[in-house]
C-alpha cells in the first residue's frame, strides 16, 4: 500500500509548477526568436553589395552607357536572379566597403577581394570565382628599371594601401603611393609619365587595364609572376546562412558554365574560374 503524505503533495505540486514554468519559458523563447540576416534579406527581397565601380574588368562604368558592369558585377547580378533577389550596388572605396560589410551596412562585397589569412580572420569568403597571380605594370620603354621584385626598393609603387599587393611592395622596399578610389586610368597614366614606377596587381586585371589604354607607355612585365591567388565574394563573419545560399548558387553557376562565359566576356576569352599553373619567378 502506497501512502501519500502532505509532503508528497507539496513536492508534486512544485514539480508541476516548475514544468509549467519551463514550458512557458520555452514558448516565450520560440515567440521571441529573432529572424536571421538571411530571413531579413529574403523578406526585403534585396541584397546590398559593395563594389568600387572603378576597377576595370571586375567593376567599372561602361564608357558608352555609363552603366555599372564588370566580371563580378555580372556574376552578382546572375546570383541575385537565381536567388530571387534584387541587387543594390553601392560604390565605395575598398576600406569603406569592407567596414560596411563588417558593421552590417552591406550584405556583401564584390571587388576582386583575395582570400588571405588576415581577411579570413575578419570575413567569410564564398566559393572562389576567380584564380590568378600577381604581376607588375611598368613603363614599356624601360620596364621602369625593374627586372625582378628585388628591384622594387626605392621605386614608387601605386595602389591601395591595405591590399596584399601593396604589402608586397612595402616588403621589397618600395615607396607607397595611394589614391582615394581613383580610376584605372589615373593609376596607369601616372606610371606612364613617371609619376610612379610600378603597379603590383592581379594579372587579369592588369592585362585588361593595359589593353584599355594603348596610347600609354605601359606594359605587363614579361618576367614577374608571384603570389597565386583566389578571389571570392565577401560576407559578414556572422552571416553563415547567407554564405550557404551564395555558395550553393555559385557552385551551380560554375558547373553550368555561366561564370566561365562571364569571364570570357570581360577577360578577353580567358576563363578565370580555372586555377592557372604557373611557376613563380622574381
Strand-pairing-aware structural class = alpha+beta
Distance between the termini: 93 Å
- Total strands: the figure is 14
Radius of gyration: 26 Å
Helicity level, as a percent range? 40-55%
Give the low-confidence spans.
1-24
Apparent shape: globular
Helical element count?
A: 10
Major sheet: arrangement of strands: 5-1-6-14-7
Q: Topology as H/E string?
A: HHEEEEHEHEHEEEHEHEHEEEHH
Largest sheet: 5 strands, mixed
Mean pLDDT, to the nearest integer, reads 89
Note the beta-strand portion.
15-25%
What do you see in this structure?
- The chain is an alpha+beta fold and 282 residues long.
- It has ten helices and 14 strands.
- α6 links the parallel β9 (156-159) and β10 (175-178).
- The radius of gyration is 26 Å and the shape is globular.
- Mean pLDDT is 89; it is low at 1-24.
Characterize this entry briefly.
This protein is of the alpha+beta class and 282 residues long.
SSE map:
Layout: H1 6-32, H2 37-44, E1 46-51, E2 54-55, E3 59-61, E4 68-69, H3 71-83, E5 86-91, H4 94-102, E6 108-109, H5 117-122, E7 123-125, E8 130-139, E9 156-159, H6 164-171, E10 175-178, H7 184-192, E11 199-202, H8 203-212, E12 218-220, E13 226-231, E14 234-236, H9 240-255, H10 258-266
Parallel strand pairs: 1-5, 1-6, 9-10
Antiparallel strand pairs: 2-3, 3-4, 6-14, 7-14, 8-11, 8-12, 8-13
Amino acid at each position: 500500500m502506497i501512502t501519500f503524505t502532505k509532503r508528497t503533495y507539496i513536492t508534486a505540486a512544485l514539480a508541476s509548477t516548475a514544468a509549467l514554468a519551463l514550458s512557458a519559458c520555452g514558448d516565450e523563447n520560440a515567440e521571441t526568436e529573432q529572424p536571421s540576416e538571411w530571413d531579413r534579406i529574403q523578406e526585403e527581397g534585396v541584397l546590398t553589395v559593395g563594389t568600387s565601380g572603378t576597377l576595370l574588368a571586375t567593376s567599372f562604368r561602361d564608357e558608352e552607357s555609363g552603366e555599372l558592369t564588370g566580371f563580378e558585377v555580372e556574376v552578382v547580378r546572375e546570383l541575385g536572379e537565381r536567388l530571387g533577389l534584387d541587387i543594390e550596388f553601392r560604390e565605395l572605396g575598398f576600406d569603406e566597403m569592407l567596414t560596411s560589410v563588417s558593421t552590417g551596412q552591406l550584405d556583401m562585397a564584390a571587388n576582386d577581394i583575395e582570400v588571405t589569412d588576415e581577411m579570413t580572420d575578419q570575413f567569410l569568403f564564398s566559393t572562389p570565382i576567380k584564380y590568378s597571380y600577381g604581376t607588375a605594370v611598368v613603363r614599356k620603354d624601360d620596364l621602369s628599371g625593374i627586372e625582378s621584385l628585388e628591384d622594387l626598393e626605392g621605386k614608387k609603387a601605386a595602389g591601395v594601401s591595405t591590399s596584399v599587393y601593396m604589402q608586397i611592395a612595402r616588403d621589397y622596399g618600395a615607396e607607397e603611393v595611394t589614391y582615394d578610389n581613383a580610376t584605372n586610368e589615373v593609376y596607369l597614366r601616372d606610371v606612364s609619365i613617371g609619376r610612379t614606377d610600378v603597379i603590383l596587381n592581379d594579372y587579369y586585371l592588369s592585362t585588361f587595364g593595359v589593353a584599355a589604354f594603348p596610347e600609354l607607355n605601359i606594359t605587363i612585365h614579361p618576367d614577374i609572376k608571384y603570389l597565386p591567388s583566389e578571389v571570392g565574394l565577401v560576407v559578414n563573419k556572422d552571416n553563415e546562412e547567407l554564405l550557404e545560399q551564395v555558395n550553393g548558387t555559385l557552385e551551380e553557376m560554375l558547373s553550368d558554365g555561366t561564370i566561365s562565359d562571364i569571364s570570357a566576356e570581360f577577360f578577353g576569352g580567358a576563363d578565370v574560374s580555372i586555377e592557372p599553373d604557373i611557376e613563380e619567378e622574381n
